[in-house]
Amino acid sequence: KSIEKNYIYNLIYQIVAIIIPLITTPYLSRVLGAENIGIYGYALSISAYFILFGSLGIALYGKREIAYAQNDNQKYTKIFWELFILRALSMIVSLIVFYFLLIKGNNTYNLYYKILFFELIGELLDISWFFHGLEEFKKTVLRNLLIKLLSVICIFIFVKTKNDLYIYFIIYVLSILLGNLSLWLYLPKYLTRIKLKNLSIKKHIKETIILFIPQIAIQIYTVLDRTMIGYLVLDKSEVGYYTQGEKIIKLLLTIITALGTVMLPRIANEYSKGNNKKIENYLYKSFNLVYFLSFPLIFGLISLSKNFVPLFFGSGYDKVVPIINILTPIILLIGMSNVIGVQYLLPTKRQKEYTISVILGAIVNFIMNLFLIKYYKAIGASIATVFAELTVTLIQLLFVRKDLKIKSIVRNSFQYLFSSIVMFGFTYLLSKLILNNIISIIAQTFIGFIVYFVLLIIIKNDFIIEYINLIKLKIRRTYGKEKQ
Question: pTM for this structure?
Fold first, then answer.
């Protein structure tokens, strides 16, 4: 199966995932307001813990195990049903606890938790990990695109005032529920018949728990920020500011992390065949792609944020600007840890090192949150996030120092860093010369894009030159066929 095609499918989905919030966020931030956005973010952060504990580590583990067995229909059918039943049982326990803690009890957000109960049911039915393991990304991408487009239409039709927050929750939950249900339609084509007595669920428990531990740690420094701001700060608008700033960063990050989703099953499959040299080659290319995308995104965001935030979110969101600027380094850091952790350590069964790195990151995040949120609120949480991601990346680099050439990995980043700094100089100058926000953003983006690419071509960057030559070759082949 083609890595390029799978990456393109996944990238198309991630780009749409970026465009959709660019359409809905300005509308929702104005209609619902910062406080309601904060409540939405806080409630989702609570439900995320129940999904985490109900899912165990099965999504990552299942993707990897299916990839190992992707050429054996009987074997991967058996693995699928064993893991699905295990995940269903653990999700049912999570649903019961969620019901008695948040729905039966009296709390401020009881209505929203009742709606989010169906989010957990939707997650129970999620089998996207199975298709990712088989490297069948087209099906999951097309399904997600359709559901997301329907969600956008529903938001603009039904969410009209601040009182419609519950409708926004319903749209979100239905998109998950319907999206995950739709994948079951494809399933019969891939599975063969198997007897229930032949299934062995117990053998997977230990491995899923091993992968579940890092999932808890990751959740601590990705979701706990919002929970802690909501708990430690009375003004829920602070959660809203942090959610909106983090949203912009995470949207751009999806372009980079899309490769990890594609590469995990591919590297797992190569590892099962013992193709270590091929794995190493894939990893170096992944690092180059991370640098190529992350450095211009970091410097571009810093340059654009002051004009972009008021235009995008509306008035009253000025605090989002410093939050975005502080969070920008995590684009590079998460990109690098995605290559080392998700693309290398997990597929090659080095969960222990991966787990240690994310646990240390979670500890750093939690301790810094306790001190910084109290005094600096959402900005404090942003600083803690950067240090947490830095910890994870440095620890992972330490673990792979004997397997990969760290000096070469770091040295390869210099050309992208230099080109991005020069690009930043041009875009910063334009922001001072052009006063109109919209024109300034368009000009900065366009000129910045050209400057960055031209510089990489001038300095003969290997990554760019290689892909330019590949494009030329494909054009020649296509043109040659047409002439024949």
Answer: 0.74
